[in-house]
Design brief:
Blueprint lengths: L1 E9 L8 E6 L7 H11 L3 E6 L6 E6 L4 E2 L4 H12 L9 E7 L2 E9 L5 E8 L3 E6 L1 H8 L12 E5 L3 E6 L3 H5 L5 H11 L4 E5 L9 E6 L11 H13 L7 E6 L7 E10 L2 E9 L1 E10 L6
Parallel strand pairs: 2-3, 4-6, 11-12, 13-14
Antiparallel strand pairs: 1-2, 1-17, 3-4, 4-5, 6-7, 7-8, 8-16, 9-10, 10-11, 12-13, 14-15, 15-16
Helix pairs in contact: 3-5
Length: 299
């Protein structure tokens, strides 16, 4: 069986920046095991598979090289962009389609240039669920930090908009640059916290117009994620809930320290001090396209 596959860099308009994603735009007929094999072969942070849906316009399945994940940000931006570029999402002002994720159905908006080419994809995340807090005595040893290097000595907190992350605020960009992960300690803390990874951020950026810069640290990952959409939504919920920035729009950065700078626009909706919605927008660019072969013998 032969399937089309494309590599799309999300949260950037510049090839080889932002976060790369492999997308199989017509994945009908593939088993879950075959999808996992393709994701392992593509060896991208995530691989997206697009299927038909009885509940939405498209069903999407996301895999890392190791396992399936229920929801993710940058594959949604990459997939929406490629489907629009292929003409499967028709140009509108903007076009609104529903994606069926493993966590449920959420809307995706695609904006277009006058030429008809996609310009930006905006994804919605679920309302944040605020979990347990962790003080500096538990957080600092995981990253070789001192208590004074945490932002206002605020606690870290587990937050989920579909996938739980441990959100860790640090004092400034210099601290963020020099974080050193203690993998065994962080692995144990994440296991206790029930979080997928740690997301560290500061209220500064490389660009003067940026409100935040962030890093995703996963003790079981082989490389650092360049731009993490789902965790960014959790970070935004933390910032707005604690009054660290007025919002509702935050210009966010990630990936600069890896040589893959990415940018996104995060909007946090709030009514009566309750966060009611999270929207994250960014652009994307296709960098590679081809075909992948897989046979029944690979089951």
């Amino acid at each position: 069986m032969e399937y089309r596959i494309a590599y799309v860099d999300a949260f950037t308009a510049t090839p080889f920046h932002g976060n790369p994603c492999a997308v199989v735009p017509q994945a009908e007929g593939l088993t879950e095991q075959q999808m996992q094999l393709i994701a392992r072969e593509s060896n991208q942070p995530e691989t997206s598979f697009v299927l038909g849906s009885t509940k939405a316009d498209f069903r999407v399945c996301y895999f890392t090289p190791r396992h399936r994940i229920p929801f993710a940000g940058h594959p949604t931006i990459a997939t929406g962009f490629l489907l629009a570029e292929d003409g499967r999402i028709q140009a509108g002002k903007p076009a609104v389609v529903d994606f069926e994720f493993d966590i449920g159905v959420l809307p995706v908006q695609v904006y277009f240039h006058d030429s008809g080419a996609p310009s930006k994809v905006v994804m919605c995340q679920g309302e944040p669920v605020f979990g347990k807090e962790y003080g500096g005595d538990e957080i600092c040893p995981c990253f070789n930090l001192e208590q004074a290097e945490l932002l206002q000595q605020l606690p870290a907190q587990v937050i989920s908009t579909g996938v739980p992350f441990l959100i860790v605020p640090v004092r400034d960009l210099e601290v963020l640059k020099n974080v050193e992960m203690d993998r065994p300690r962080l692995r144990e803390l994440l296991h206790r916290a029930g979080a997928a990874a740690a997301f560290l951020f500061c209220l500064q950026g490389f660009d003067e117009g940026s409100d935040t810069h962030a890093r995703l640290l996963d003790p079981d990952g082989t490389m650092e994620d360049p731009f993490t959409g789902s965790a960014s939504g959790c970070m935004g919920a933390y910032i707005i809930a604690r009054g660290l920035k007025p919002g509702p729009v935050l210009n966010i950065e990630q990936g600069h320290l890896m040589g893959r700078p990415g940018e996104g626009e995060l909007e946090i909706g709030r009514e009566n001090d309750i966060i009611t919605g999270i929207r994250l927008g960014g652009t994307a660019v296709k960098t590679l396209e081809g075909k992948i072969n897989i046979s029944a013998e690979e089951l």
